[in-house]
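Researcher: Here's the sequence for the chain we discussed earlier.
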Amino acid sequence: ALLIGINDYEHVDKLSYAVDDAESIKDILINQYGFDKNNILLIKDKEATKANIEAGFQNILLQAGEKDRVVVFYAGHGETYPLPSGGEMGYLIPVDGEATKEKIFLTSIPMATIEQIANMSAAKHILYLVDACYGGLSLNMRGLSKEHTPEYLRKITKEKGRQIITAGGKDEPVIERPEWGHSAFTRNLIKGLKEELADSN
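Model: Thanks. This is the structure I predict for it:
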């Protein structure tokens, strides 16, 4: 697992609970889902530079074997950049990143880079949990009709899977509140994983 949480941004608004979010997910992965703590890389605040995050992606994804599962959790700012041909590209903003049109490409991490790294990885399953708001995700998504779901589940247990779950799209603010101690996204993720509210029963 690669877990990233950033509160103390250098050039954009600071956040309050992103680091707590990442640390909580680490605890759940270790204590409830059997992840070896030596296989979890937590990058937070001043360590979460563009270079360190990209190195973290490369190390985690390229070290994973054919039967491994990889979880990538990111809590921080995200931004979109409009493409001349239409559509948008999503970016993760590292602690030293800038979200201006002039600086975003040089200082932030495009989702296309993350997709490329995922394609290079031998890991059987990669799940991205992105607690940031932006559109422009570059992985292709398709809907499923209800009657095809069992066949789909059989298929993904045999083949490689790449999935992204994100807190919000463009112009949808990610909410964090003191009484939660987390963002709305991570609060509900914790309820699903830790309190078993997302179990099949």
